[in-house]
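Possible race condition, two jobs.
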Amino acid sequence: MKVIAGTRDFQIKDPTVVTIGKFDGRHKGHQKLLREMLGFRERKGYKTAVFTFDMAPAKVVSGTRQQMITTNQERRRNMERMGMDYIVEYPFNQQVSHMPPEEFVEKILVGQMGARAIVTGTDCGFGYRRKGDAALLKRLAPEYGYEAVIIEKEQDKHRDISSTYIREELDAGNVEKANELLGEPYAIHGQVVHGNHMGAPLLGFPTANLLPPPEKYLPRFGVYVSLVQVDGTYYGGVSNIGRKPTIDGENPVGVETFILGLEEGADLYGKDIQVQLLNFERPERKFAGLEELKEQIEKDKEYAARYLKNRKDQAES
């Protein structure tokens, strides 16, 4: 997959089928759009191209920082896994925010991205104040020679599947429901950093600390059963998301994972790992001391082992 980022001066010479959006989370609704694009590639040979912005437009338009379920890097991984040929992360600023929707279609989607087909959802919005919509795409299609395909929203029990819906479930700790809507486990990627160096001495097995970037949308603080991918191998884990209130000092919001079954003494520092959340066990809390924390983590390990065994048994039955 070719990534076009950090520039507004680009040209895709291949005929393409294009979609536009934030693609935050690559949920089931997004996957429906992307599969439609793959169908165009198979039938007509068009390259698949995703247009998105390098930041949430709200940051420029209103000055508010919007956290995303998937970071830009995670979004790239998702699109590559789905088989996309191009992703354009267009630099967003005030000038771009005032671009008329007709100009956006003519100059960017058709002119620069080579769109022969445009696939969007019924709720798409683009151009100045999001005045561009699915109806406009259909109206402009004959003039610019592309095919407009509008996809109905994917639903869950009569509610549209959306990033907002998924955030609500993550806020409540309902990670299993969030994963159902995503069609895959909610995940946090990152490079293992040094923490308090208390995991192995206190608990007897390795810990991995991640510091997610500020733009990463995190679920309810607490302890989760997780799967951890290290060097292509998955291990069970117990992941705490939060500020480690039992540990003295001002601790940044982080993800600390106690990895089950990893070889003792394994050096994880500097490694890129992925932590997938499977089940919310309990909220984060402050314990009276390290001994009480250690006792609770032993219970967390037992809970995780039972959950993972049941999950495996169900998958095999």
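Job #2 (started ~2 s after job #1):
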Amino acid sequence: MKRLPTMKQLEYLVALADTRHFRRAAERCHVTQSTLSAGIRDLESVLGTAVAERSNRHVTITLVGTQIAGRAKALLRDAEEVMELARAGRAPMTGEMRLGVIPTIGPFFLPHVLPMLRERFPELTVYLREEQTAPSLARLEDGEVDAALIALPCDTGDLATEIILEDEFLFACDRTHALAGAGEVPLAALAGEPLLLLEEGHCLRGHALDVCRMGDRKARAQFEASSLHTLVQMVAAGIGVTLVPRIAVDARIAQGTDISFSRLSVPASRRIGLAWRRTSLRAEECRLLAGALREPANTA
């Protein structure tokens, strides 16, 4: 009978292709480096061709190894989904669900909804992974997470999405600013302001620039922040102004600061949505999750 690669061998290859490093690949697979090396050699024996070129300093994946690793990712994802389906076969919303979430949503939205999920779906264990939008969606497409909470609009490719809530942007400045306490702030007033932004990679940066009708090259940000919390502290220090999502304001991100928040004269918002793979065996559960998340969001 013809020998076939094992799932473990394919897992080793995918980890090696992603990390280009035997030690890091072994750590990712929770095995010793010698075990992973032996697994790769066994895979090459089964395939009859090399998948990696080794040297003392680095690893190069061969062309055929790269092609096989791409197919292997899909196979591993499908195998994991089969196991998840089997675990959830007794009832929906049971077993484990891996949820990606971006940093400008997770700390402000999840504490509000996780107790509800625990009460409604006591047999469901949710594992959270917080990352920026691009890596979170990449993990979703690769099957490393089952769904992801993201901010729209953004390019989601062929992923399925459902809107959870509209999240309004509020103008933020320190109390000594000329616009502090304004009932509404016209967009035109932002043109000459030192707009503080999150660093590259955060979708909130692009959303803020879109609201202010600025291209990234026209942004006047002298300083950039790695987190929304840091951004708020910079505003409190009088360094500049920014736009803050309402969910963060409602979660008291500015507590202990002397920041003024105002609505924009032309309301602007981002949409918080749940994304998942259309082909996922857990697609119906993702729809149930989106519906459950939407209820407390709309009553908050």
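The longest strand covers residues 160-174.
Logs attached separately.
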